[in-house]
Amino acid sequence: MANARVVTVGAPDDLGLREVLIDGRPMGGVWSDKELERLLRREGVTDGAHIHWLGEDATVWPDRAWLRRTTGFFVVVGLLATSYPLFRIGIADSGNALTYGGRVAGFTIVFVALVVLVAAVAAVDFWETRRWRYSGAVVLLGVVIALLSGVSVLLLQIGERFTFSTVIGIALVVWSSIVLFGLVKWRAWKGLRIPKNIAIGVILSTVLAAANLAYSQIYVPYVTTPLIQTGAEFKNSNMDKAAAKLYVTVHLYVRNAGRVPVYVLGSIYWIRGESAKSTPAEGPKPDLIYDGEFVSPDGRVLNPGEEVSQDAVIEVKNPDSRTYEAMSAQSEVYVIRKDRMKMTGNYESRRLKGPTLKKSLREGDPPNPIYKFRTGISNSSEILNVIRGPQCVTLWKLSGRVPFVTVDVSPPDKRIRFDPETLLDPRAIERYGLSQVRGSMAETPYSELLEKAGSADNGVTPTPTPPPPPAM
């Protein structure tokens, strides 16, 4: 009897598991009397050993194996289903996000996905042997992450279309809420032993580091406004008296004076003759002499400190018969932030005009367009791609008394109806930093241009800038 082993079987827990101690050492838990027999046999305890029963006797085994295993399977599948999209989003952003903060967030999401994957493994232990003391706490952490992920998806979906991501968000919230209720009921955190001072220190340091990173690498770059400058300047003039033509050279430019790179989606400039016959009551009646583009190629990137310029030679026929008081020039560019989106197609080659453009028109499109560009874009992070779905940017140049440009960003299967009062898509302005930048108007007296042209040593007549394509 002196060498007899001491076996103690604890009371059933919330799931029906009874902990077994042999000679005071915990040996794991058992769900039934048969599992207890196998455990004692494996540990070399003879059949005649005395067993101390705590709480309940040998007849009480409340476990329902089929229900327990079904619940465990339900939890494991949910955790694996949560980890997969987190891995996909995190891996994509860690290598391809457009900002440093986005890449850091990608690595963070990969780490979170690993935690959820470990929680799925811990769930198997929690609903089977309970050999790991902290398995319940890890499962609880994984389910909380799933709940937060579902809530985040639904919050990001506010104002968006109902998509498959919305369904995933709802499913995650419902599933994790049910499982979380059960884990709290079963007190899954039992066995977790972390001193309060260590826990508080870890939490505070993590929060401070995360706040500093979010402010410096995410918030500050996000709120930094692009500074794009554009303008036009009259240079020299030249007269071809034999052909009765005046040639005026206009210098056009756009520069990025800020710290945010942008795509130049389109550009336009207008050369007008300001009539001397206009009265103050009638207001000025400018005569559009020429309009065109000056940034090439279309959709080019304009990095901080970079400038694009072009000299356009404008031809004025029968200059002596004109009654202009002055000539004016003005430029305008349409840009979108490169740190919030990326072109997925070749924007430059997507210009449609003529019969091809006519065939592509749908109900709600602008009337009488001169040309349009349309190409797919990708958001700054994979999570936004998942939430918003595929998007396309579309630029139209429209004819009229004064040609103008309109831009929108919309899903490929959903066009934004043209509104002449709203030339830029308000949602794209907020999301992607789409902006219209108009330069100040440059004016010069018409008589001064004629005088300079007449007194200049003309030499070779300059080649005028080709006229814009006619409206189709």
Task: Tag the structure with descriptive keywords.
472 residues, alpha+beta, Immunoglobulin-like, 3 domains, six-stranded antiparallel β-sheet, 18 strands, 27% strand
What does this structure look like?
- There is one protein chain.
- The chain folds into 3 domains: 7-53; 65-192, no CATH class; 224-455, Immunoglobulin-like.
- Helix content is 36%, strand content 27%.
- It has helices at residues 33-42, 65-96, 100-126, 135-156, 164-185, 196-223, 354-360, 382-388, 426-432, 446-455; strands at residues 7-9, 18-22, 25-30, 51-53, 228-240, 245-256, 262-275, 287-292, 301-302, 307-317, 324-337, 341-343, 351-353, 369-379, 391-398, 404-410, 435-438, 442-445.
- β2 (18-22) and β3 form a beta hairpin.
- α2 packs antiparallel against α3 and α4 (135-156) packs antiparallel against α5.
- The chain starts with 6 loop residues before the first strand and ends in a 17-residue tail after the last helix.
CATH topological fold name of the largest domain: Immunoglobulin-like
Distance between the termini: 107 Å
Which blocks of ≥5 consecutive residues have pLDDT under 50?
none
Full CATH superfamily name of the largest domain? Immunoglobulins
The largest sheet, given as strand count, sense and whether it forms a barrel, is: 6 strands, antiparallel
By DSSP (H or I, 4+ residues per run), the number of helices equals 10
Give the class from helix and strand content and strand pairing. alpha+beta
Shape: rod-shaped
- In percent, how much strand structure appears in the residues? 25-35%
Number of domains: 3
Fraction of helical residues: 25-40%
Average pLDDT confidence is: 82
